[in-house]
Design brief:
Mean pLDDT: 88
Number of helices: 9
Order of helices and strands: EEEHEHEHEHEHHEHHH
CATH class: Alpha Beta
Bound molecules: zinc ion
Distance between the termini: 11 Å
Number of strands: 8
Structural class: alpha/beta
Shape: globular
Largest sheet: 8 strands, parallel
Radius of gyration: 17 Å
Strand order of the largest sheet: 1-2-3-4-5-6-7-8
Length: 229
């Protein structure tokens, strides 16, 4: 079973893939019932200035097929709303802790801020940095603070750096994603396996283990309408 831990693509083309589809708070439609997809819901830092109702949001997060909070986080390319982004991010962390769902993080030039906030909040739920594209040193620091890293376009855009990063982190901390790229997640697995010089089967198994560990496989398995397991 392949896992696409962060995507905006709702289409289901492959039943060997579990995907976590991101719902922004601006999405009014929520797919209820037995839609065979999992969701994450969060307030994106780019939407920091928009109006939203946190109570509605809390209700969405309670739904069973919403398995993660996010993407939320901090983005320094949008400096003008940084204060507000921070405020919202703390709220999302609080939701994640209270509702016991992992947090999917959008971080641009803010890896050290994320680590400081993790220390300050003492948050216990798993945190996944999606779309990681930093240095091996930042990867090490994030891993030391127990974060997970998810890779997508970085594997294609900056192969040399991606090889160094991938080979410097434990596979127990690894996820892969398609985000908005429109790629097939299986291709992303192939690319990562080539860069890591390992078998795609190995990655498939290890990342599925990571998924089961942090998204509560036992709980999901009972909802077999979602997957046909
Ligand atoms: Zn995204």
């Amino acid at each position: 079973m392949f896992v696409d831990v962060h995507t905006h693509d709702i289409n289901i083309d492959n039943h060997e893939v579990i995907k976590i589809v991101n719902l922004g708070f601006t999405v009014n439609t929520f797919w209820d019932g037995d839609f065979p997809v999992l969701f994450s819901a969060g307030i994106h830092p780019w939407d920091a200035n928009q109006n939203f109702d946190l109570n509605d949001f809390r209700e969405i997060l309670r739904k069973e097929n919403v398995v993660a909070v996010g993407e939320s986080g901090l983005d320094k390319s949008h400096k003008e709303t940084f204060g507000k982004q921070h405020e919202i991010f703390l709220k999302m962390i609080d939701f994640s802790e209270k509702i016991h769902k992992p947090l999917i993080i959008h971080a641009v030039r803010t890896y050290s801020d994320i680590i400081s906030i993790k220390k300050e909040t003492k948050a216990k739920m798993p945190w996944i940095i999606h779309g990681f594209q930093g240095s091996p040193e930042s990867a090490q620091q994030l891993i030391r603070h127990d974060l997970f890293l998810s890779f997508g376009e970085f594997l294609y855009r900056n192969e040399n750096q991606a090889v160094k990063v991938l080979r410097s982190i434990p596979v127990e901390k690894l996820f892969l994603e398609t985000d908005v790229s429109g790629r097939n997640i299986v291709d992303v697995y192939e690319k990562a396996a080539a860069l890591m010089n390992c078998d795609i089967d190995f990655l498939e198994e290890k990342i599925f283990d990571n998924f089961k560990q942090i998204f509560g496989y036992g709980k999901l398995e009972e909802q077999d309408t979602y997957f046909g397991w």
